[in-house]
Amino acid sequence: MKNILRPALVLFFVLTLLTGVAYPLVVTGVAQSLFPAQAHGSLILQGGKPVGSALIGQNFTDAGHFWGRPSATAPMPYNASLSGGSNQGPLNPALVDAVKARVAALRAADSGNTAAVPVDLVTASASGLDPHISPAAADYQVARVARARGLSVEKVRVLVAQQTKGPWLGLLGESQVNVLQLNLALEALR
């Protein structure tokens, strides 16, 4: 029994040190040195203090800010500890009612806007935390934000264009706008 138990225990401790200590330390060191912003949560700092993460949406509700995608997290929106979608399909009456209510809220906030409401302003993402909207969703809100802030529509539209990021390497993904970064740039105009 001793001949079997000793090698098994030695192998257990060696593998524990390699896979439980050495490997995580190496991976963490590489991540910290090559991708420091991502390794620290992609935090957005303002005045040296974190104001949010570029990876998690925030709940902007006033007319002077751009609004992000609806959040499916409960009991409060954009709760990172409760990430998850609503799991409601397109034929689910609850989703249809929620989308109708969101469209009505957008129309009420900007009654003069007769453009089609972009789908990402009325449907939650799979995680319920998406911090990005499409350029069309940002453009839909330009007039409301400009009016609420007393800015020209053209000035706000230029700001949206500056904050729009194209597909990765020009090929992968779609153009998108980070709502937190756009709203911080909007605040910087003051």
Task: Write up this protein.
Helices cover 47% and strands 8% of the residues. The chain is mainly alpha-helical and 190 residues long. The chain folds into two domains: 1-40; 41-188, no CATH class. It has a three-stranded antiparallel β-sheet. It has a two-stranded antiparallel sheet with strand order 1-2. The radius of gyration is 23 Å and the shape is elongated.
Share in helix = 40-55%
Number of strands: 5
Largest sheet: 3 strands, antiparallel
Q: Provide the gyration radius in Å.
A: 23 Å
Distance between the termini: 77 Å
Element string (H = helix, E = strand):
HHEEHEHHEEH
If helices are DSSP runs of H or I spanning 4 or more residues, what is the number of helices?
6
The parts where pLDDT drops under 50 for at least 5 residues are none
Proportion of beta-strand residues: 5-15%
Cα shape: elongated
Mean of the pLDDT scores? Answer: 88
Domain module tally: 2
Strand order of the largest sheet: 3-5-4
Structural class designation = mainly alpha
